[in-house]
Amino acid sequence: MGDPMGGWSLTVALSTMVLKARVRTRRPQRTRREQKKERDQERKRISALERERDLKRERGQKKRDGELNSNESTNVGERTESSGSVSEEDLSKGVRRRMEMERKRERTVLGSSEREAEEKEMDRDVVVHVRADLFVNGRSWERIHSALSTSGPLKLQCRYLRVEEISVPSISILLDLLPRRGLLGVDIRYSSLGVAGLAELLPLLSTFPALKSLRLHYCNLDFRRVHPSQSEALGELSQGLARLQELRHLSLTALRLPGQLRVLLSSLPQPLEILELPYLSLSPADFAYLSCSHHTSTLQQLDISENRLDENTLPSIRRLLSQASGSLQHLSLSGCGLTDGLLGLLLPSLGGCRGLKSLALALNPLSMAGLMDLVKMAVRMPSLRQLLYPNPLEDYQPGLPDLPSSAQLLDWPLDETLDINLTSNKLNRVLIDNGRSDIFLTCDLLNYDKDMVA
């Protein structure tokens, strides 16, 4: 499967295409601007002539009125003439006042509609709107910035934005250039946002009314350390997330937020459908909140990999699976420290998820007996199509600790003297005996892809 957030090379190629199209049509665009300027000047000239003509007409009318009173006495005539002069001066002032008011009205109208006119002017030359998923990093930022801010026959728009190793100010500039109604998702990776940076970006993200997906991966957020302003910072993040009215997919990877899940997720106005929380050092309090939150009954995809489970957290996980059993389709519990005993307690709850299509349990310290129990449960799940299982402890070389971590299971070498297909053959025999050849079993963590399930 390709990267759903778009490839870097494709993004650069699209940006280059937009810029080249602008260069080829730059002269016609300049000509149209000159023509518009000439039309505006002509309208102003005609308006000035009309105002001058009105002034002369009113002065002529006053002169004729003075001639009609020529038979009056000299004193009366002088008084009339003097009065007429004052009236003519007042008349001139009135005309000038009206001219000034008209100019002010013109400036007001132009000021209020200037932004709208600029937007229409930019879109006037657009022949094709190029809607794409953009992948931006430090090497491509300048080119993509130019392509987004240019006007021409091709206009670059963004459906999903993925940025890597880019500062908060640069991300903010990109967001300002994107059309507000086209952006559906944002993926920020390996950028040192910090709490302050994320709090700065969230209000910008709230201006995109169709934003449904937010992913933050390795963005240097760590609440394990005690800071005096920690509560205030969490409050700002919670308020920022509360403004994302249409958010349905939230992915937080390695942000280190133990005990703070309630503060972040309870502010979301809509229940989530996809929640990914790997490497978050979740605490028992976090799992307890998650098991009874307003998101649980709508979850279609849940990833809590690399958060260690034990006897204290298992009741919350069972309650969570029970609440999500009607909607959950994809579940990942890889690297959670599940032993044969813990898995045995969890199997009834897993079996109750009748709509589950994929289940990932890699890097858990299970024996061959535990794997057999897992597959026997899997064949009774009617919707299950993929099962990622761990290598059994018996397949590793001697010396592995009794309760190895996921990192130890990943690095420890397998016993090359054993038949590498022996485990796979035993597990697949269970599928065949139960008529479930439609389930794909694999221990290949690197090539596992839940999205391959229809």
From TrEMBL:
Any one GO cellular component localisation term in the record: cytoplasm
Biased composition (Basic and acidic residues): 31-67, 90-116
Keywords annotated in UniProt: Cytoplasm, Leucine-rich repeat, Repeat
Compartments, record wording: Cytoplasm
Biased composition range(s): Polar residues: 68-86
Region of interest (Disordered), residue spans: 20-116
Coiled-coil intervals: none
Annotated Basic residues bias: 21-30
Origin superkingdom: Eukaryota
Similarity remark: Belongs to the PRAME family. LRRC14 subfamily.
PANTHER family noted in UniProt: LEUCINE-RICH REPEAT-CONTAINING PROTEIN 14 (PTHR14224:SF9), SIMILAR TO PREFERENTIALLY EXPRESSED ANTIGEN IN MELANOMA-LIKE 3 (PTHR14224)
Protein name stated in the entry: Leucine-rich repeat-containing protein 14B
